[in-house]
Amino acid sequence: MSNVIIIGSGIGGLLAGNLLAREGHQVTIFESHKMPGGYTGGFWRKGFYFESGTLSFETSSMVFAAMEDLGLLDQISFTRQHTRWVNKEIDGSMQSYEEFKKMIFSAYPEAIFQLEKYFAEVDKMYYAILPFIKNEKEAFFPKVLSYITAGFKMAGLYRKYSDLTLGEFTERFFDKDSKICRFFKSIGYPNMAAFLLGGAMASIFDDYWTVAKGMQSWADLLSDNFKKLGGELRLNSYVDKILTKNCRAIGVLCNKLVYSADYLIAAGDYKKTFLQLLDDRSAVPAEFLAKVEKAVVSEGIVTAYLGLSLSNAELEKYLKLPHVFYLEDEPGAELLEAEDREYFKRAGINLYAPSLHHPGLAPEGKSSLMIQTIAPTRWMKNWGNGDHELYRRLKAEVLEVLIDKAGELIPKLRDYIEFADLATPLTYEKYTHNTAGATSAWSWNPQKKFYKNFIKSQVETPIKNLYTGSCWSMQIGGVPGAISAAYACAKRIK
Ligand SMILES: Cc1cc2nc3c(=O)[nH]c(=O)nc-3n(C[C@H](O)[C@H](O)[C@H](O)COP(=O)(O)OP(=O)(O)OC[C@H]3O[C@@H](n4cnc5c(N)ncnc54)[C@H](O)[C@@H]3O)c2cc1C
Is the CB of 355 under 6 A from ligand 1? Predict the structure, then answer.
């Protein structure tokens, strides 16, 4: 049995910890925050609960299988998410992709010709990936056959669109400056790879889930189980250095103390693992470090957290569903212009109300609301260039803008606010150490790839016995990236 140290208690670190402790390894997780969970965590303010990172997950078959594998599936409140889509032309709570298409066709009759062409291609992407997403219980042979057929179709589409961004793809069908073009470009990350669009559609309409009692309940369940299996979880324990000897990981330095290990799993940010934590940079090739340094990360996000003196029933009247895409943007916002102070005024927003999933997530008779939008990386010289007063002002400004926008759907919103705060990408970085508040590992732009393969998990590192156990093992990260990393790491540890 081995002595294993895991750095970070996000979903990747927690799952790897559970798998290894179950096998009898001696496992310690070091987590810098006072709570486990990372991006699958949440926090309470004045009796209101908010998500600290993700609001949802897809690839439910993978998530459920992992929880079943640990015997925990029946102890967690996973629930389906459906989404409402709104702008001045559309307003619909969508149950399926075909319903979504119907809504778009009837909202933009003047663009019917372009829409037909656009959806002819998107249909191919969507229906190719659907058999993998749906994971329906079918007889073995029909299932294998549908996977093989779908696999061939996906490979063809991948070849066709592998280097194209979503923006470039969308502009092939619609006038660059049209609202409909901006609308389709805002599905997913800005400039993500076009071939991910089918997966994004299938995820949103067919496989979109959350934890009704909040993501933190998931992290708590995994950390409690980890401890029951004999694992040690050290909170408030930032790892300062990864210690190596002869290019092999041998332990960590935390709060001036050395902890030895046979294996290390770095279950947090990849850039920081190699650019800051590694004790001896000469242990890895200089070209590798240069590549890590240069690599572009996924976009960050800003989130307004509002505690409202509005009942869930009232809030539901306005939102209709807990999750609303309010994509009423204005020209220019898609540019993600780092020095455009007006950017947030033009961008579309997402609204998410945790207490509509579970009333226990807000005080009785009240509700919780989050308002989010993607942020340009290092906006306004990284939110004020270190000037605290300017940072405070920029935060206040953006918070006001987001409240105003949400107020277009929730009349008199300001009158109900009991608590308000804003998280910027700097806040996300502060609490999770993800570079620039990257929301899902590396850039999703096909022209800025770190790994060759977009969806393969790669846990090996140039340091022996040091593995990547976080979403950063996969170009597009996410919960699936973290889960596959955890399994791949556990498999390698003897
Ligand atoms: C707003 C938002 C929306 C998202 N939406 C989705 C979605 O719809 N679907 C999806 O699949 N994914 C989504 N994601 C991404 C997903 O949440 C993450 O990719 C995933 O949860 C990351 O898990 P992880 O275990 O790899 O790392 P993290 O959750 O980042 O956890 C890393 C942990 O390591 C700790 N740590 C780091 N360095 C150190 C150190 N030196 N010492 C000690 N501890 C350290 C951190 O404190 C943190 O707790 C979203 C993320 C955000 C922020």
Answer: no
d(CA 188, CA 196): 9
Cα 458–463–466 angle (5° rounding)?
65
8 A C-beta contact, residue 437 and residue 445? no
- Helix, strand, or coil (residue 204): helix
Low-confidence ranges of the chain (pLDDT < 50): none
Ligand 1, residue 479: give the atom nearest the CA. Answer: 11
Q: Please provide the distance, in angstroms rounded to a whole number, between the alpha carbons at the two ends of the chain.
A: 7
Distance from C-alpha of 389 to C-alpha of 142, rounded to nearest angstrom? 63
The pLDDT of residue 375:
95
Q: Assess whether the C-beta atom of 242 lies below 6 angstroms from ligand 1.
A: no
Model pLDDT, residue 316: 98
* Ligand 1 lined by 473 (C-beta under 6 Å): no
CATH code that applies to domain 3-41+61-69+215-295+444-492 = 3.50.50.60
Quick check: CB of 207 below 6 Å from ligand 1?
no
Domain boundaries, the chain: 3-41+61-69+215-295+444-492, 96-206, 299-435
The secondary structure of residue 165, as a DSSP letter, is B
Q: Which atom of ligand 1 is nearest to the CA of 485?
A: 26
**Cα torsion 283, 289, 291, 292: sign:** positive
